[in-house]
Amino acid sequence: MLKRKEFILGAAVGLSFAAVATAGGVISWPGAHAAPAAVSGRLAPSAGAAGAAFAPPQGAPLSFADIFQQVAPAVVQIDVKTRVPKPSGQTIQIPGFGAVPIPGAPRGGSGEDSEDNSTTALGAGSGFFISADGYIVTNNHVVENAEEIKVKLSDERELTARLIGRDPLTDLAVIKVEGGNFPFVSFEDKAEPRVGDWVIAVGNPFGLGGTATAGIVSAKARDIGGNENPYTDFLQIDAAINRGNSGGPTFDIYGRVIGVNSAIYSPTGGSVGIGFAIPAGIAKATTDRLMRGETIERGYLGVTIGDLTSDYRESLGLPDATKGAFITDVTKGSPGASAGLLPGDIVVSINGRSIRGSNELTRTVGAVQPGETLRLELLREGRRQTVNVRAGTRPANLGAPDAGKDPEAETPNAPAAVGEAVEGLTVAPISAALRSRYDLSAEVQGLVVTAVSPQSRAGRLGFQPGMVIVQADGRRVSSVKDLQDAVERVKSSGRPGVLLLVRTPNGNAPIVLPFAKSE
Q1: DSSP string covering 149-183, please?
Q2: Annotated catalytic, 406?
């Protein structure tokens, strides 16, 4: 399984990019999810249709030298200085690596800086000119929190740059140097690269500026998980990308920019042939707005969502072909709450466009302007409904951990279990006493779990006293009989488990509770 910590993305991941800056809504690529055509018999390789957008010129695989000579002058090395927490012990600063401890050096602060809890860190990344008057595209994580930005050109000139704008949610930024007649390159946001097309990455790996690597497009529309880049369908490439390549361009064999290098997957910190680039369509739309001085605003519903998994479909008795995004929670006072969206709703389309999963919903909503009206088609309690929502503006700190949350404190020791047993859970309607005992807010409604049989399936799934069952089988529950009826209804249909929407210390979560097998 792909683990989030193995991506070289941003300050929180393996390479400490916020300190080191060394490298890592929405436009959908047409046909990115198209199914392969059905064929039979022997497959014969084709030289490509004449005039095809990505048909290689004669001899392209033999050498990339002409292409590199054409585009390399537009690629720059970016060196930054940032302030970071001071590490214990003495260190040396190495560009691209930050503060490196000196073996055997005494630990602890010393000298006149001993009261200062921060130190200067050096970082290096890549970028490229997109205009003759000095605008440069790079990654947000390369220049984020930078106190000084220096740009080294291919002709060895070194210029001071200033930040024009940045967008953390696409990991893009624009900086500018003074001057004119700079060589620049252009985004190719019309023709679509195919899996298997040649690519060339040019950048500054490990401080070795002007480095070119070649490979192919390995995959498209990659979702690499996490909250850092929810609005990007990445290109996956196998051209080598290492520390310092971030922010550099990915070219096609015509010297057009088809991506901005942003992240790698690596268990070692070095290239293993799996790199990710922000597609040119997304990069151009975002950087154009940043160059104009615009703030990037995105649409917002105010819902917590997840994918409609096969387990959820089975427990709800939905056809296997059903696609959508499962709403687990709705933020109080949000546009979604005002429009009447409810936990347990399944969004199957927006403005007539089918929604295949949670990422597609996030990007579709993020692509609209705040204030636009969205027509959502829902599945609610097994029936289709249409809800119109006026999109709000996505908060800047969305996704940040809730301040003051203490999950352990929200699971108090219950003096005694009250209620009735259902499938290994002892549940009861929320009374004033239970609300006080489990510190449940007035907005929380449903059946509170007061005890869990450790050997039951519910116990093995991690149910804890204080959790609240909000829905069962897609219907709200307020009494024990509601839950019992839902269980019997699901059992009678032959389904192996019931889908519960459960309020946990970390928010609502859909959980399929399998039924105990009859002996």
Answers
A1: EEEE-TTS-EEEEEEEEEETTTTEEEEEES-S---
A2: no
